[in-house]
Design a protein that fits this description.
Strand order of the largest sheet: 4-3-5-6-7
Number of strands: 7
Number of helices: 4
Structural class: alpha/beta
Distance between the termini: 40 Å
Helix content: 40-55%
Radius of gyration: 15 Å
Strand content: 15-25%
Oligomer: single chain
Largest sheet: 5 strands, mixed
């Protein structure tokens, strides 16, 4: 089911899909989703649906999960993808840059909850993270 635009106080609120990579229990994921929805709403983002991938200790998302996200975004016309951290998408910096570029080209914004901002580029802090964890 797709939720597109909704009205709040006469203003259109962009519809979003939340993409989460977690190895938490179902109950904790539900709590995290509700908190994230509240944060998004406070920033004018209406989360319509969630895609939750439970990968365990291997935090890198595989292609089928990303393809499913892209399919839902394009089919439902979402304008925003919400993630807790950019690394929930992938820990490969080049794949992440490609994903962000493709999303921007398609007119889709990526909102990162940990920084509470829309992300278009991978910044220096992200690069340090990738550099450090890429060696492990």
């Amino acid at each position: 089911m797709c939720y597109l635009e909704s009205l709040l106080f006469g203003e259109n609120i962009p519809s979003a899909i939340m993409f989460m990579n977690s190895n938490k229990s179902g109950r904790n994921i539900s709590k995290k989703v509700e908190k994230a929805r509240a944060k998004c709403f406070f920033h004018g983002i209406n989360v319509g649906n969630e895609i939750i991938v439970i990968k365990g200790p291997d935090r890198d998302i595989d292609r089928p999960a990303i393809n499913a996200l892209i399919s839902v975004v394009s089919r439902c016309g979402y304008k925003v993808v919400v993630v807790d951290k950019l690394i929930d998408i992938t820990t490969d910096i080049y794949d992440l840059e490609t994903f962000l570029d493709d999303a921007a080209y398609a007119g889709v914004k990526v909102f990162e909850l940990s920084s509470m901002q829309y992300r278009r580029f991978v910044d220096v802090t992200d690069m340090l993270f990738f550099e450090f964890f890429g060696r492990w």
